[in-house]
Structures are given as C-alpha cells and as structure tokens.
Amino acid sequence: MAVTILNVLIRISLLHNAVATFPKANLYRNLKQQTAFGNFQLYQHQKLVGTKIASSLVSDIIDCTFNCVSETLCKSFNIAASPDSENLYLCELLNIDKHRVSIDNLQVNLAFNHYSPWVIVFFFNSTPPPPPQPPPPVPPPLRLNFLSNISHCLIIITFVHQGKTCSEIKSHSPQATSGSYVIDPDGEGGYQPFSVFCDMTDKNRVGVTVVGHDSEDRILVKGYEAKGSYVRNVVYIGASVTQLAALATNSTNCEQFIKYECYHSTLLIYGYGWWVSRDNIKIRYWGGATPADSNKCACGVTNSCVVSSRGCNCDKNDAIWREDSGLLTEKSHLPVTQLRFGDTGNSEEYGYHTLGKFKCYGMT
Q: Fibrillar collagen NC1 domain: which residues (predicted)?
C-alpha cells in the first residue's frame, strides 16, 4: 500500500513541542494543546492478539493510523491486509503493543498487518540516511512520513475537529468521516475533553457519539440466588459518568442496548433483577420499555410476552432458553452504571447479560 502524501493538517505553532518530545516517546498525546504524534513499525502479515478498544472500516492505512493516534487509549493497531468488497479495510485499535506482551501474542496471520510504536531519529531533510533493517524473516517496514518518504509510519496530527458532540462536529464539518475525535460536551472550563468514536454514517449521517465499556461481552450469571446479589459495575472507556451525563444533556437522543438471556431465571418479576442509572437510581423497566412501563420489557409493552400476564419473557421462569432485549432510550437515566440479577443459585438456573455501547446523537 504505497503512500506518498499524508493528508493531515499540521498546526505549525505546535510542531516545536512535538519535536522536543519526540526523542523521549514514540506515541505522544497532549489533549490540553490538542496535539499528538505516533511513530509505528509494520509487522506484515501478523496480528497482535489483545483487547480491542474499537473496530471500524477505514479507507486506508492513514485513516487507521489517525484513529489510533487520536484515541487516548490506543497503543497499537491491526489493519486488514486487503480491502473488502466495498474497498474498505478493517481497522482494530488495541490497548497494548507488541513490546508489552508475550511474543506469542504476535501471531502470523495473512489477513492482517500489525503496527506497534517504534522510536526512530527525527529527520528534517528530504534524504535521510537509511535506517537499520530488521532481521529476517520480518520484511522491511513500510514508512509514512509527512516530512520525507522514509520507511516508517510517522503521524503528527492536531485534533482539528472538536465540538460538544459528534453531531456538532458533523454539523460543522459535513465531510467528517467515522473515527476517533475529542469532544467537550460541557464546553471550555468544565470537565476535561475526552476521546470518543464518532459514527458519521449511522442515524442518517447525523453524527453518533459512541462510548464503549468493559461489559459489552455476553457474560454468564450463575450462582446468585438472592435478589440483585449478582453485581456488575460498568466502567466506561476514557470518560467518567459525569462527563457522559454532560454528553446526554447536549444530545437530543441517547440509547443503549440491553439483553438478558434466561433459563429458569426470572428478570423483573418479584424484584430479582434491575439496572442502575447514572444517578444511582434502581431502574425496574427493561430494554424496549420506558419509565412509564414499570416491571416491563419490550414484550410487555407490546403485549407479546410468552405469558400475557407477565411483563417479560424471562418471567415465565421455565426450562426453556428465553430472552428479553431492546433499547433503553430515557437519556436522563443513561448510561447504565450497574447490572443486578438473582435467581441463578440452583444447578438448573442460568442467565447471560449483554450491554451495548452508549450512543448519543442530535443537538439540543
């Protein structure tokens, strides 16, 4: 993938700080000055196995590198070696790099290339001396440099797109593409700005702010009989609940997907399960319902539950796997900060919970 021009805006007044810091770090960010740079080495046809912060489809290596450098938690990234049918590349941002994990984590994978930080000498002329080559069988690294065409990936960027929300960024810059951005929901002088993923194609391209967390996987609930005895605290990536509350306040709509799968385990009936709002309030309606629908899931709102007299499918409490799921949309309650369940203490009682990313869109 040959690259000769790096399409990134540079704020020259900030270049001095980047240069001064460069010898000390290979991945540098300064949110206060809204500047960052990254220096990455290619590991061709290899993939680093680790925790993914975010995945997205990008147009080229530049977009993927930009996403990593501007995401405060990103340490390295994997990118597909070949584009898909839409000529886009899968870009995976990781919270680790190859230098901080076992060598076994970097695995041969013909479908991907991996990039981890690597410090090199900073050149200002256009014909720098050739850098040392890595030993075989690792191929010479591809390099991208906005100053000279050498074989490393050096990105220096400034966060030129900033607003209160992704919708505001999209409104001011209609050409903005999906990726990582820094937002400041409560404006200057309030809480610190933070990095989010902006989905610029969802919801009719209005600009959706997306925040991930540590409880997105399908997680087993087993061995907790008492009401609410299972406790899962939800920790959001890169932002506090107070910052996310400011995001909700400055958005027209917010939503979060929630699901509970059950086998001989009740959900809302008899008070066994609930979730907790950002204000630490116990909430007893489920996805697809509203605050007016107490003790109901989506099927209870539409009168389609397996038992018509009960508000959720799981509240039938039988030996069949059932599910209650849907979107939570009351933005004054979001994001979800805790999940609580019970009725899984016996050998034949099981539950699984899944919680989606926190998403907000539209401008107030």
A: 162-204
- CA dist 91 and 164 (Å) reads 25
CA 134 to CA 130: how far, in whole Å?
12
DSSP helix/strand/coil, 217: coil
The pLDDT averaged over each successive group of 10 residues in the chain (364 residues) is 31 41 54 64 90 90 85 90 92 89 87 80 43 48 34 47 86 90 88 93 96 97 98 96 96 98 97 98 98 97 96 97 98 98 97 98 95
Half-sphere exposure of 113 (CA within 13 A, CB side): 22
Report the candidate in 57, 56, 38, 17 with the shortest Cα–Cα distance to residue 357.
56
CA-CA-CA-CA dihedral for 296, 298, 300, 302, to nearest 10: 150
With H, G, I as helix, E, B as strand and everything else as coil, classify residue 155: strand
Q: Percent helix, strand, coil in the chain (nearest 5)?
A: 15, 30, 50
Which run of H or E residues covers position 70? helix 61-70
